[in-house]
Amino acid sequence: MRTANSNQGQSIVPDTNEINDYIKEYLRYSNYSNTLECFDAEIKSKQVSNKMLNKQQVIKQTGDDMPRIFQLLKSDNIKTKREINLEKEQKQFNKKYQQILQAGRQIFSVSINLLQLLHSLKETAKNENLSETLENYKIQLGKYHKVIINEGKPEGTELITEQVMHEHKTKLFKNYQDKHVDGMIEVLLSLRVNALQIAPELRKNLVYELIRNDVFNIEATDKFDFVVHLLDINNQSLRHAITSLISVISSTLRGVEYLTYNGNMIIIEKIIKILKEQENGSVTQRFCLAILQKASIKDTVIPSYVQNEMIQWIINLIQKSVNSKIHVFCLDFASATLANIIHTPYTLQYLEHQPRFAHQVMEQLLKFIKDQIQVSVLMHILICLSYLSKENFAKQMEECRFVDRISQFVEFYSVINTENEAAEIDKKTVLDLCAHMFHPKDTSLDNSETLELNELKTEDRIREYENEQGELIFECFQDEVS
């Protein structure tokens, strides 16, 4: 007990030598040379040293009488309000994390019970398709179970074997020929589960393996019949399964080239059609937007986007989000796609020949920057506007009061209040973006000298997967339904 009390006492009072150094530093800075000499001499005196030692012992016993300097410099650091809040948030996140894991375990328990019930009915049903479906369910359930028991950490260190890949492709075609929709769904989801489960650093190679094995039989037949027929089947579960796998493949440039083999845009056109048929914010719509955003890195696909009225569709989606809730993923990827569309020479030339439509697009985008929209969407809209701030659109810029409205936005955005550090960083990023794109010769807001003539370099465009050397991100949403 004495040791504990002694430690507590010493934790209250800081090192007296440290305090003396602070005082001497202050006296020296303020040119109190005489006082400094006297103070220094007194410290060196053995008599004063004993006095200070005795005084320190008294302070240990009567902490309420401590000088304010001791309280300011005591060795126990007081946590800041921000540190306390971060600790609270961390505890809440850990609690939610454990709740999610527990919920996952409960779901698997229910799923296993349902599988056992189906097995008991299998004998009476005498249905071969039911037996195969049950086996597929068990395989898929086992893979998801590994994700749960590993607490979300991917355990895959190897790619899918050649044999497994071949078996999946064979089963997929057999189910397709037998018109067994549930069987096709199971195979497609199984391939995707393998993709989600594999280690991030191996994902790119997995995509290349899917292409090499020609999973959609595109290169072998020089046709898109198989995948197009899958996309044409009006079954929501199948569309979810096929679009999620196409999204995996489109995560690399080579994957986009596979999906647009020989310049054929039929898959892109089908995805756009499915996208427009979906309820806003739905899971399938998210996968369609993910595919289209990733594919938009390739300029040759952009004419299909423009001809299928994707510019107006995206603008309408953002407009709807002003007054109603739209999934954040849809808005983020849709606006990023819009930036990639407008950036291309094809689109700029198209808008140049459609002056009224160019005016409508510019006017609507300028209206958006005044609305309460998420920061990532705002950045994408500003990038779109920068692509339109060219001499070719001088008439539209004058009609829309482009320069004045951008200046008003910057003035307004410069004084908005931010609630936290993250919001302050977002604010600075938006203002820096404006400085780059709309004031290229003004270095007062930003020191970068890499941008010229209102033109962002191609490699600086907003592309979530552009860096092919990095780890790929495969979309996975909490509200997906198998």
TrEMBL record:
<dbReference type="GO" id="GO:0036064">
    <property type="term" value="C:ciliary basal body"/>
</dbReference>
<dbReference type="InterPro" id="IPR040369">
    <property type="entry name" value="ARMC9"/>
</dbReference>
<dbReference type="Pfam" id="PF21051">
    <property type="entry name" value="ARMC9_LisH"/>
</dbReference>
<dbReference type="GO" id="GO:0060271">
    <property type="term" value="P:cilium assembly"/>
</dbReference>
<dbReference type="InterPro" id="IPR006594">
    <property type="entry name" value="LisH"/>
</dbReference>
<protein>
    <recommendedName>
        <fullName>LisH domain-containing protein ARMC9</fullName>
    </recommendedName>
</protein>
<dbReference type="InterPro" id="IPR048957">
    <property type="entry name" value="ARMC9_LisH"/>
</dbReference>
<dbReference type="GO" id="GO:0005814">
    <property type="term" value="C:centriole"/>
</dbReference>
<dbReference type="GO" id="GO:0097542">
    <property type="term" value="C:ciliary tip"/>
</dbReference>
